[in-house]
Amino acid sequence: MPDVVCASSSSDQTRAIAGALASALHGGDVVVLSGDLGAGKTTFVQGAAAALDVRAHVTSPSFVLVREYAGRARVVHVDVYRLSSLQELIDLGYEELFAPDAITFIEWGDVVEDMLPDDRIEVEIRAPDDDTRRITIRARGSTMRARLDAMPFENWTVTA
């Protein structure tokens, strides 16, 4: 399947798109988020976490690097924007970030691509203007490609 490209004109729509993605996620899955600063990466994680039955308010882990939440699976939210080396990710205990009971969301994950699992979902969020977000979702690895095919994005997809 080619990339899925969605258009969002509000934070609520961004959260709904993330919820559609989360509907097919399982423990051990990794979602890597990249894109423009302030485009809505944390908003996306908020929507996914809500769909995963997280009751706590999801906030950016920018200054603490990692936040964990309880839901239908353990949700791990990581922000590697401030890391200056891969060693810092290793020091965080990156093996635990990819535990089989956790669904892990990594903001700015493209920075640590060499340490990411081969099977993952990549989400790129671009803000062409103040009111619009272009959200590109791509699957890496055959397992994730099969799951992406089954995800319900038809309400938001646009032609690439």
Distance between the termini: 13 Å
- Topology as H/E string? EHEHEEHHEEEH
Mean pLDDT: 86
Helix content: 25-40%
The CATH superfamily turns out to be P-loop containing nucleotide triphosphate hydrolases
Main β sheet profile: 7 strands, mixed
Overall tally of domains:
1
Number of helices: 5
Radius of gyration: 14 Å
List the helices and strands and how they pair.
Elements lengths: L3 E5 L2 H12 L7 E6 L5 H11 L14 E4 L4 E6 L6 H6 L2 H4 L4 E6 L12 E10 L2 E9 L1 H9 L10
Parallel strand pairs: 2-5, 2-6, 4-5
Antiparallel strand pairs: 1-7, 3-4, 6-7
Helix pairs in contact: 1-2
Feature tags:
single chain; 160 residues; alpha/beta; Rossmann fold; 7-stranded mixed β-sheet; 5 helices; 26% helix; globular
Describe the 3D structure.
- The radius of gyration is 14 Å and the shape is globular.
- The two termini are 13 Å apart.
- The protein is α/β, with parallel strands linked by helices and 160 residues long.
- Strands 1-7-6-2-5-4-3 form a seven-stranded mixed sheet.
- Helix 1 packs across helix 2.
- The protein has helices at 11-22, 41-51, 86-91, 94-97, 142-150; strands spanning 4-8, 30-35, 66-69, 74-79, 102-107, 120-129, 132-140.
Summed up:
The protein contains 5 helices and 7 strands, in the order βαβαββααβββα. With 160 residues, it is an alpha/beta fold.
